[in-house]
Amino acid sequence: MGSPPEGGGLPAGGELIRSVRNPLIQAVRRLHRSSGRLEQGLILLEGTHLLQEALGLGLRPDLVLVTPDWLDRHGALYERLPEASRLRTASPEVLAAATTTRHPDGVLLTLAVADLPVAASSPPGFVLALDRLQDPGNLGTLLRTALAAGVEGVWLAEGADPLQPKVLRASSGAALALPIERMTSADLHDRLTEAQGCGQQLVAAMVPEAGGVVRPYWELDWCRPTVLLLGNEGAGLAPELARLADHWVTIPHSPAVESLNVAAAAALLLLERPRQAHGRPVP
Ligand SMILES: C[S@@+](CC[C@H](N)C(=O)[O-])C[C@H]1O[C@@H](n2cnc3c(N)ncnc32)[C@H](O)[C@@H]1O
Q: What is the pLDDT of residue 283?
């Protein structure tokens, strides 16, 4: 892209959008909802950090909407925008109306869903499977840890939409880097059975008092091809999915609490694989 303007004058990005009734702003606002994302095939990302993450992953924003003040402060980032991205400027009030955050930092962007990573055809060596996770903050946090732990695929049975702005923010961009597949609970059941058929161990994360043969998570060999399965915040793991598992593991803790937050539990479990793999090859 060309250079940002120096001093006064009309900033790059054409005429400043001053009305929330502008059709472009209305289209961006529709991306707050999953129906709008589906209809337009786009997702909405808010903030400088997510723009940097998207560019770092080689993704090409469809639209970049900024305030003149943001453009003044981020000339270097502006220079990195691909030629094909559309840059538009809007007043701070209009930009705020187009975002889902209370205090946007002056930029939003849209990306084509079709440009996001797709699942590999062969079963990945480390998969995170989530049963009806509801909370966008939990889901985003989990995705961030999953990427850090070397997860290669994420299977979601229903629950929160991973492409909603809250999840994208909470994942700090990890949701853009991971192949994520959303499916029905019945399809997840089939997918898990298939994975077992391909030699992957299916590991269910259970609360300590789950009963049955539950063992501490560190006793498992996490370096084998693994699918880790975690349950819903309230109801836990659906019994039919738990029954499929080859192993039930738990993080032992005081009975003063019934369970851990799902994202907190996932952090320990997911990072056990790289911890065990330290110094030995992982298939
Ligand atoms: C908040 S818990 C659900 C609690 C639910 N009442 C139950 O009985 O499962 C959500 C999920 O986090 C995981 N989890 C929570 N605490 C755990 C622990 N101590 N060890 C292993 N997994 C845990 C499990 O996968 C669980 O289904």
A: 57
